[in-house]
Amino acid sequence: MSRWINTKVEFVWDEATQQYKEVNAEGFHYDGPMAEAQDVPNDREARYPKTPFGGSQVSIDTRPDVGDVVTDTQKVTAGYFTGGGGTLNGTEMYTGSLADSNEKYYFNVTQTHPDSASAETQFSVAYGHAGGSGSNVDGGNLYGTTQTVYGQWATSLLGENEVSGGFKISALGSSGVHATANVRDEDVYFLVGRRERFRDRINKKNVTLVFSGSTSNGLSGSDLSLTDDSAIVSPTSTIVGPRYNLVSGALGSVHTAASTRTFGHFYPEMGVMVFSVSELSASIPGDETISTITASFAKTGTRGNGDFLSSSGFTPNLSAQGDQQNALKFVNCLSNDAASITLRSEEDQVSVSYFCRVKSNQMNHSNNPTFTSGSFNELRHRSMWGNPTVFVTGVGLFNDSGMLVAQGKLSTPLKKNYSSEATVKVKLTY
Predict the structure, then answer these.
(1) Residue 6: its pLDDT value, please?
(2) Tell me, what's the pLDDT at 58?
(3) What pLDDT is stored for residue 149 in this prediction?
(4) Averaged pLDDT in 10-residue chunks for the chain of 430 residues
(5) Does residue 312 belong to any structural domain of this protein?
(6) How many domains in the chain?
(7) Are residues 270 and 386 in the same domain?
(8) Does some domain include residue 316?
């Protein structure tokens, strides 16, 4: 088969089409044996393959001892509550509206009146009883809602061999209500944070809960401040991460150690706090008749008034004849005038710095078609012959599959030729 072999080709620039146009070709027909060249890119293309968005590629050495990739993890904390605040005062707390069926299990707490357009749920509160007291069990024929709550959180927070034994909080302290016997807390209060607020975890050593109520004779001014003891003790390992104790103190400063009195357990990774009802009631019992009323949303009134009783203490109503809304007693004691809660979120921010190094013999050509001219792809500008000059304007990071995963632009183009090297640091934070 005869083929035409070019020996000379002449092109001129056509202003009308803005392209080179062939005007003359010299050569000959050849029908002898031929060995076709392999489809192998030239050396420059092999070393600097084109990228999907233009430019060329250079591999980054990811070996730790090289130093092209450096990873750093920092813990970033912020106020937990809406607006970035770290403390929510009792006067700012409101109980959010829920369907009656949901209120049997928990109550949401907002940072402003629930009818306000800016109202957002800050955390939830629930009451659990191992036997279902405080909810309707119909003489043992029904599984009480408080029993459901207790069992749900026991299954979620305790190890498989601990679930049947339940929560044992009060028994840990030598002066606790159940200190003399290794018995479970029959009923507990739960405070459950929201994941979008506490991020990776609730920041330990910055936890303070100040409760306010009254003594059994109805005298006000009975306050209790609790914090976590992470500053002085090592955590207890659990199936959901580390666990600390909630003890008397503030902002990580412990007043009374857990070995003496333990009020609750703190699971920072879960954003959950579990409180012994026995211990809270021993400190702020409330009016002597509080155990006979169904808690209400209201917190005002005088002694003997049901509204006053609802916010006077933690002593639960253990009646099994209906929903006693005991969780509201916890909310009310946390939302009294002298009460408050201080929390901070914690998030792990991972920063990866990629040092994109360009050696003197790299990245000195452009894939732009205007960079060269003619059939021999000679540099268009004679001033660049021998030492072409380009400007680096951006950096793209590709994965092993060749997919672009990150792209950035330099604030100022970086001049590059055979006489210079360059290092561009790309930092990704997530």
Answers:
(1) 67
(2) 82
(3) 98
(4) 68 72 73 50 45 65 85 94 96 87 92 94 98 90 93 97 96 89 93 97 97 85 94 97 98 97 98 98 91 79 57 93 94 93 96 92 78 74 76 88 87 89 89
(5) yes
(6) 2
(7) no
(8) yes
Q: pTM above the 0.90 mark?
A: no
Q: Where does a domain end: 342, 374, 408? A: 342
Contacts of 209 (CB under 8 A, 6+ apart): 191, 225, 226, 227, 246, 273, 334, 340, 341, 342
Same domain for 409 and 425?
yes
Tokens of 235: 């955590």
Q: Please indicate, yes or no, whether residues 95 and 243 belong to a single structural domain of this protein.
A: yes
Range of the domain at 53: 44-70+349-429
Q: Does residue 23 fall inside a structural domain?
A: no
Residue 41: what pLDDT?
42
On whether residue 250 sits in a domain, the answer given is yes
Q: 94-95 and 107-110 as β-strands: parallel, antiparallel, unpaired?
A: antiparallel
**Residue 342: per-residue pLDDT:** 98
Q: Which residue has the tokens 């792990």?
A: 348
- Confidence at residue 31, expressed as pLDDT on a 0 to 100 scale: 72
Are 335 and 396 within one domain?
A: no
